[in-house]
Design goal:
By secondary structure, this protein is an alpha+beta fold. It has a domain at 73-169: Orthogonal Bundle (T-fold). It has helices at residues 62-76, 84-90, 101-116, 126-132, 144-150, 183-198, 291-304, 306-316, and strands at residues 8-9, 26-29, 38-45, 48-55, 97-98, 160-162, 167-169, 202-207, 210-215, 223-228, 237-243, 246-252, 257-260, 263-266, 281-288, 319-324, 328-331, 335-339.
C-alpha cells in the first residue's frame, strides 16, 4: 500500500435516504437512472449512515463490505475499549502499544501529514476534541483555562513510532490520538481493495459524505457527483463532477457544529489556539485516488484558508473545489467558476 493508503445519496428515480442524513454534504447523481439491476443497502457504522450501491449480480458482497467497515471501526474508534486507538490512548505516559501493520501505517501517514502541514491536520488532537465534544450530547464551549491546559497535549511531534515492533507511544499522560479526520477515507481505500478482489465493475460507497466512486457506472459511464450548496437544502448542488475510480471527500463548517449564545462553533479545531479554525472556506472538497489522502486534505484545506489551500492541493496533485464565505466557488483545475447568491 502506498504512503497515502490508497450526503445525501439518491438515485434519480426512486432511491432516497436523505431523511436519514441531516449532516450530509455530497450528493450522488448516478450516471443513469436507477434500475432493478442496482441494489442499495444502508447501515449505521463509524457514527454515520453508510450506503453501498452495487450491481445486483454483485449483491452477495454487500455483507462483506459492511463487515470490513465494522472491523475498521472496531480498530480505530477512540471510544471502543477494544480498539487499537483506545489502547494507545489508555497507555499514554505508560508504555508503547504494538499494533497491526495497517494501523501503524495509517497513524504514521497521519503524523507525516501533521508535520507537512505544520499541524493544520493533527491526529493528536484527541484531548481538545473531547473537551469540545462537538457532535456528541456533551458538546459545550470550554473555559479558556481548560483549553490552555490541554494545548501541550496536542504536540504531534512527541508521538513516538517504532517500525521495529510497530509500536506507538504517547509520552505525556493525557495525550490522545483521534483519527476521525482520516478514518472514513482510510475505510474507502480498504473497501476499494476489497472490491478489486471481488472483480466488481462499479459501485458507490457513501461513508457519511466520504464517497468512493468505484470503477464506473452502467455502460462504462463515469459517476456524476454533485457538490452540495452550503446555503441551500441538503439536496441542492452547486455543481457536479464526473469521475471514475476516485474518492470525493468534503469537509464543511456546517457539517457538525455547536451553537451557544448565538455563536456557531464548528468541529474543525485549530490545535494552536484550541478554538475552531478561522477560515474563509465553508466547504472544501478533494477529488483523489486515495481516500486516506483526500480525507486528511479536505480538513487541511478548510483550516488553511483559500490563499494557502490551492497551493497545498497542487503540492499533493489533487483537485479541490472550495466554497468560500463570500459565495465564491473555486476549482483548482479552473479557478473561480461561480459566485453563489446569498
Amino acid at each position: 500500500m502506498e504512503k497515502w493508503l490508497h450526503e445525501d445519496v439518491w438515485c434519480a428515480n426512486h432511491l432516497s435516504v436523505k431523511a436519514f442524513l441531516p449532516l450530509a454534504i455530497l450528493i450522488i447523481f448516478f450516471s443513469v437512472s436507477c434500475t432493478s439491476g442496482t441494489v442499495s443497502d444502508s447501515r449505521i457504522a463509524m457514527d454515520t449512515l453508510i450506503t453501498v450501491s452495487i450491481p445486483e449480480k454483485d449483491s452477495e458482497y454487500i455483507d462483506d463490505i459492511f463487515a470490513l467497515v465494522y472491523e475498521i471501526d472496531g480498530e480505530l474508534s477512540r471510544y471502543n475499549d477494544e480498539s487499537w486507538i483506545y489502547k494507545i490512548n489508555e497507555n499514554a505516559g505508560i508504555s508503547p502499544v504494538s499494533v497491526p501493520e495497517e494501523v501503524f501505517n495509517l497513524i504514521s501517514a497521519s503524523i507525516d501529514m501533521a508535520f507537512d502541514t505544520d499541524g493544520l491536520f493533527n491526529p493528536a488532537i484527541g484531548p481538545l476534541s473531547a473537551l469540545w465534544g462537538i457532535g456528541s450530547e456533551d458538546a459545550r464551549v470550554p473555559e479558556k483555562d481548560e483549553i490552555e491546559a490541554v494545548l501541550p497535549l496536542l504536540d504531534y511531534t512527541l508521538v513516538e513510532l517504532s517500525e521495529e515492533d510497530l509500536s506507538v507511544y504517547l509520552p505525556l499522560p493525557g495525550m490522545a490520538l483521534d483519527l476521525g479526520g482520516v478514518g472514513k477515507g482510510y475505510a474507502a481505500d480498504r473497501i476499494h481493495e476489497l472490491l478489486d478482489s471481488f472483480g466488481v465493475s462499479g459501485a458507490i460507497v457513501n461513508l457519511g459524505g466520504n464517497v468512493l466512486a468505484y470503477g464506473s457506472g452502467d455502460g462504462g459511464r463515469p459517476w456524476r457527483i454533485g457538490i452540495r450548496n452550503p446555503e441551500g437544502e441538503s439536496s441542492d448542488s452547486v455543481m457536479s463532477i464526473e469521475c471514475e475510480d476516485m474518492t470525493v471527500i468534503t469537509s464543511g463548517v456546517y457539517q457538525r457544529y455547536l451553537e451557544e449564545d448565538g455563536v456557531r462553533y464548528h468541529h474543525i479545531l485549530d490545535s494552536k489556539t484550541g478554538y475552531p479554525a478561522v477560515s474563509d472556506i465553508v466547504s472544501a472538497t478533494v477529488i483523489s485516488s486515495s481516500g486516506t489522502l483526500g480525507d486528511m486534505l479536505s480538513t487541511t484545506l478548510l483550516a488553511a484558508g483559500s490563499e494557502k489551500a490551492m497551493d497545498i492541493a497542487a503540492e499533493y496533485g489533487v483537485r479541490c473545489i472550495l466554497i468560500l464565505s463570500d459565495g465564491s466557488v473555486l476549482d483548482s483545475s479552473e479557478g473561480q467558476i461561480a459566485v453563489l447568491q446569498k
